[in-house]
């Protein structure tokens, strides 16, 4: 598993998906900064770009409000998601990823996350305010699989 972030404690077995997500350093920094600023609440964002057979490329990030204002949960309003999706399509893009942060826990999907990953079959990026790590996951065949962020 060379080149993959092995620097975190695995709570469950994770298969690495043979497809990466491309996120610029600038976007990573902006997402981390937003997550830190929104503490103690979870923060969230919608990442827009394109998907090919090899990867997902993030071209734009849309910082969204966590309407739940919770330390352990997040909600993006469906209206906002619809609006972002419409705008993306106008520019020949699509929603490629959902971002959210865990202010005080690891960058791994919670049970609640897994439930929502089932209905939002995008890659999910999770940033940990505790370890400052950013990991990406997707739920496939009821299993959480990791996607490398490059
Ligand atoms: Zn979560």
From TrEMBL:
Coiled coil: none annotated. CDD domains: MPN_like. GO terms for biological process: proteolysis. PANTHER family: CYSO-CYSTEINE PEPTIDASE. Residues 21-150 form the MPN domain. GO terms for molecular function: metalloexopeptidase activity; zinc ion binding. It comes from Candidatus Nitrosopelagicus brevis. Keywords: Hydrolase, Metal-binding, Metalloprotease, Protease, Zinc. This is JAB1/Mov34/MPN/PAD-1 ubiquitin protease.
């Amino acid at each position: 598993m060379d080149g993959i972030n092995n620097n975190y404690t695995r709570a469950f077995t994770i298969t690495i998906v043979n497809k990466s997500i491309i996120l610029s350093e600038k976007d990573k920094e902006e997402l981390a900064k937003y997550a830190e600023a929104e503490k103690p609440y979870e923060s969230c964002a919608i990442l827009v770009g394109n998907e090919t057979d090899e990867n997902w490329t993030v071209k734009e990030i849309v910082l969204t409000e966590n309407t739940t204002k919770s330390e352990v949960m997040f909600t993006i309003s469906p209206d906002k998601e619809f609006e972002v999706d419409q705008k993306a399509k106008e520019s020949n893009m699509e929603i490629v990823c959902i971002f959210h942060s865990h202010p005080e826990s690891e960058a791994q999907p919670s049970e609640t996350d897994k439930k929502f990953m089932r209905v939002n079959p995008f890659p999910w990026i999770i940033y940990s305010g505790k370890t400052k790590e950013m990991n990406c996951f997707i739920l496939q065949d009821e299993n959480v699989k990791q996607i490398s962020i490059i």
